[in-house]
């Protein structure tokens, strides 16, 4: 009996070690949470990840009071109580002070009356996965030269905004052409021409809000959609700001950098294509007139 018991204990020890090694290789962190006590029990490895005690009482109070966060995690656990299981990505501030994306996978354990008493689950650090996803999205949406939105992304984002514009705030679409850009390429070379495009994109990003849509439609043609603007005075002010910054930021020996701009107001239910046609027609008027100006319709 003693020998059999010793062999069984060795077998159990070996199995536990195998599972521990597999767990270490999996990059997952185990936890158990008590709904009744608001108590979080971390595995040893999980506690090291969060620089935490193995058992943390009043867990969500601890997150909110000591770390100043935890609302996203609490919302996930509230959902867990209702649905019985979750797979959620949340941002958590780690001991290094940086926000990391973590994927929480958990299941609820119920008592005989159907009341949730425990949650058991695992945590996976998906920061690199999210960064790669963001990189691929940016790569698909951004112009490769200027790193602002490409034509397809501009169209998609303007159309989406106008569909969801519940308060009918509308906006205005600006279509910009760099005056005599072909001459710039011929005189200074394509490298300088590319630098002009890059600097123009940087000026547009600096003048307009982060929430506005700034993109390159192709060649030397750019567009800006200013959300919530419906008056010509604001549009003219923004044009003058762009014009001034281009003159100071974009340096061409013996030349002054100017742009022609056509602008068209937009409202809910309209499409990018519809507004673009109006703005492009206004741009044509400026070019016919003498360039270096703006026309608003």
Task: Please give a quick description of this structure.
By secondary structure, this protein is an alpha+beta fold. Helices cover about 50% and strands about 25% of the residues. The chain contains ten helices and eleven strands.
Account of the 3D structure:
- 48% of the residues lie in helices and 26% in strands.
- It contains 10 helices and 11 strands.
- With 297 residues, it is α+β, with helices and mostly antiparallel strands.
- Helix 8 packs across helix 9.
- The mean pLDDT is 85.
- The protein has helices at 2-25, 44-50, 59-67, 71-83, 127-141, 151-163, 181-188, 190-207, 232-249, 272-289; strands spanning 28-34, 39-42, 55-56, 85-93, 99-110, 116-125, 171-178, 213-218, 221-227, 259-266, 294-296.
- The chain has a 6-stranded antiparallel beta sheet with strand order 3-2-1-6-5-4, with helices on both faces. It has a 5-stranded mixed beta sheet with strand order 8-9-7-10-11, with helices on both faces.
Number of strands: 11
Uncertain runs with pLDDT below 50, 5 residues or more?
Answer: none
The percent of residues in helical segments reads 40-55%
Mean pLDDT across every amino acid position: 85
- Enumerate the strands of the largest sheet in spatial order, edge to edge or round the barrel: 3-2-1-6-5-4
Helix/strand-derived category reads alpha+beta
Query: How many angstroms does the end-to-end distance come to?
Result: 95 Å
Question: What sort of overall outline do the alpha carbons produce when their principal axes are compared?
Answer: elongated
Number of helices: 10
